[in-house]
Write a structure and sequence with these properties.
binds calcium ion, four-stranded antiparallel sheet
């Protein structure tokens, strides 16, 4: 699940990014409204965490532009503004949720999981495909009922593929899901993760579509 974090408080953004990545979310961070609007186009996140007090424009204007075409990602407003009229404006402009700072991390994570379920990719938290079962709430993977201990990026890669069975995901789109902007990655990172997953699950569970990317078959 790709999250765009729009937050100009550097310390808060760092803390959030770390906590969200630990939860298995893939996070890109921007600190201005202008960068947020650019990232929405290039990055196509599924969820946006939106601060309202941004240095260059009001977060509500970002929300307005984002909703202009009636589509777009789920938006959770995360702000110190606790006035009812701010909440009402935010929700009326198409925000899905509103959380006031200071907030508790477990509550934010629970609300993000709720939004994640609403994206439709994950309805129950459990995705089964043959002998493999992935539980997005427990962040666990089992093969024939036996739990696997997967590093975070292997889990995220497997989750991305299992959420889109029958679809080929390009190496670039997988890199985007697994790594944030500016993060160092070797050119063969995805291949290495796939190699490890095949060894742990089954050699042919993840198929290579030469020159295109990777896929898992429909269950
Ligand atoms: Ca702010």
């Amino acid at each position: 699940m790709q999250i765009l974090l729009v937050e100009d408080d550097v310390l808060l953004a760092d803390g959030l990014r770390t906590a969200l990545r630990r939860e298995g979310f893939s996070v890109n961070h921007v600190a201005t409204g202008k960068d947020a609007l650019a990232a929405l186009i290039t990055n196509q996140p599924e969820i946006v965490i939106l601060d309202l007090g941004l240095p260059d424009m009001d977060g509500l204007s970002v929300l307005k532009q984002l909703r202009a075409d009636g589509k777009g990602p789920h938006v959770l407003i995360l702000t110190a503004r606790d006035a009812t009229e701010d909440k009402v404006s935010g929700l009326d402009l198409g925000a899905d949720d509103y959380l006031v700072k200071p907030f508790d991390m477990p509550e934010l994570l629970a609300r993000l999981r709720a939004l994640e379920r609403r994206t439709g990719a994950v309805r129950t938290g459990r995705i089964s495909n043959g002998r493999v079962e992935l539980d997005t709430l427990a962040h666990s993977v089992s093969v024939d009922g036996k739990e696997l201990d997967l590093p975070r990026r292997e889990y995220m890669l497997l989750k991305a593929l299992m959420e889109n069975p029958g679809r080929v995901l390009s190496r670039e789109s997988l890199e985007e899901k697994l790594y944030g902007w500016g993060e160092e990655l070797a050119s063969n990172s995805i291949e290495v993760h796939v190699h490890h997953l095949r060894k742990k699950i089954r050699a042919d569970f993840i198929k290579t579509v030469r020159g295109v990317g990777y896929t898992v078959s429909k269950p």
